[in-house]
Amino acid sequence: MRSGIAILTIVAFASVPLWLRDPYLMNALITTGIFIIGAMSLNLLLGFTGQLSLGHIAFFGIGAYVSALTSLGFDVGLPFGFRIVHVPWPPIVGFVLAIVVAGLCGYLVGLLSFRVRGAYFVIVTISFAEVVRLVALNWVELTQGPLALTNIPSITIGLPGLGDLTLRTKLQNYYLVLAVAVVTYVLISRLVHSHFGRAMRGLMENETLAVSVGIDVTRTLTLAAVISAGIAGAAGSLYAHYIRIIDPEVFAFINTVTMVIMVITGGKGSLAGPVVGGMIFGLLPVFLRPIMAPEAQWIAYGGVLIVILFVLPRGIVPSLALRFRKPKSRAETLAPVAFSERDAKEHA
To answer: Its membrane topology, per UniProt (predicted)?
Structure first.
């Protein structure tokens, strides 16, 4: 049943360019899709490990800058008269490096910050994002600072026997973002339903019990941070090559808040939650812009957010699933207990 719904959803999204001819709305769908990928990566931490990262946009921005600089090339000076000269590489290489470098940064942040959690972890992630933003703003020789990196080349994909395909049009970028979003969704789905995913959920629900059966807290959370950061880096790379201009404003705190809103309203801990929340709050400003003044748009945006959280406090997807779910039998009610005992034996 769920696989059928997923397939129908993919087909529906794939059919959008066949009937949507408005380039403005197509652009909004592409950028919304990119931020949905970022929201899915945040949901892996917030929804399945319970760790709130308010600096998640740092990995998004790192991916954007790494991919852009890889494809543009650079020449920067170092202390003692050394210089690093990098000639431009194909954008697809930049996409891969964006995932790798963002993942390594996620490893560094996770290794240092998962020894403390709660409010301390939130502070660490916010501080990291601010440090990265200041580096991008002030290292002018590398990043051009507030002048921005411009003329970033579009992603080019090699097709066997057909040569290279440069994804310049909105139609091509739409399908590229859709493909990456589907791969991300499948990857996260397989991950959270694996042995590692059960360990993540165990830490979120009862850390003391999880530790008692042998789950390594720091290793599990750090690996989750690496995967989450890598996915965010991929989203940042797509953003850089689609917009083709990047400046330090990509690290703006409002972008992290947007991702958090997408996750919370859609339903944290659910696979489809960030997609549903992302579509609502990614496209809502687009539909409000022609009919409201900027101040009224923010009021309406906040009003919709409050109504959703008041009516559906668990988020849209979990709340609706709970309302339409059939009553459980006694055997089904006891099933989670048996499942937990099995997981404990596996880890012991």
So the answer is: Multi-pass membrane protein
